[in-house]
User: What shape does this take?
Amino acid sequence: MKIGNININSVKLGSTTVNKVYMGSTKVWPNTVQEFIFKINTALGDGLSEFKFTPTVSGTGDFDVNWGDGNIDTNITTQADSRLDHSYSSGGIYEIKITSRLGLTHYNFNPSPDVLKLIDIVNWGTNSTLTNFSNLFYGANSLTSISATDVPDLSNVTTFQAMLRSSAINYDFSSWDFTNATTFTFFALSATAINSSIGGNNFSNMTSGQSFYQGVTTNTSSLANLTIGGNVSYFFYATSNFSFNTLTNVDFSNVTNATGFFQNSGLTDTDYRNFLTDLTGWNGTTATKTLQSNVPIHFGTAKYENGGTSEDIRNYLTGTKGWTITDGGGI
Assistant: This one.
């Protein structure tokens, strides 16, 4: 809202914060943000002509839901009000739009059968009050691709725990800004098939990335230019059909725990040796990259080369840096 040419972001009457301003019945502040739009198919899941989900509200909220059939729930303000359950007169594909103005922190799709009806994200929108993407698409097996060309506002989102767990999404996340995020535990755990690129993403504030890709069967997207940190134990545990040859230019400087990192994975001997060089920035005689001391890490059954560069790097890590390395030994 403006008074003259001055933007007013916080309105008060005395010491009381004003959350909404009307002229008659028309809301004029705060300004409506671009909508979060998604599609559902009611024939999926339980097949019932209905859809339920539970957006999370912090404090006093203010958002509308357009159900795509001419019905709109307006001015939803509280957590109790946001337990949304809509019945359609007939089954089919519907486009649902959420218009958020205040306090909506998490879209929070319900577990099966409702999440199985989700088939597309059309538009992410510009909701800056989002703080949590945890479990967002957990079990969304019908959401195999995303058509949205914009990216969400992640400026206040800190946790993505289990966001893609047990899903099958083919989507490029490389343009998302994860710099404020800390928690990625079980991010894509046991996804059936996922080619969602995280290459180039900066997870510099990551403190919890355990089992990020654990049990994911297929990912052929680039893994280059990753910045990860904190506890990344079992990050690639039990993965197969991964392009580990693209795991280059990785920033490991803040990693403190990599227990089980490549355990039971498809890491080859060549990938292992190349990764050691990249991990340390080895210049032929010494490391050039900063690494934490006393880090446990697992390289599966991959082997280093006796008397070669990979053994020199391994000795540096276990000796100078005090790392505990589990691998397939030397050959």
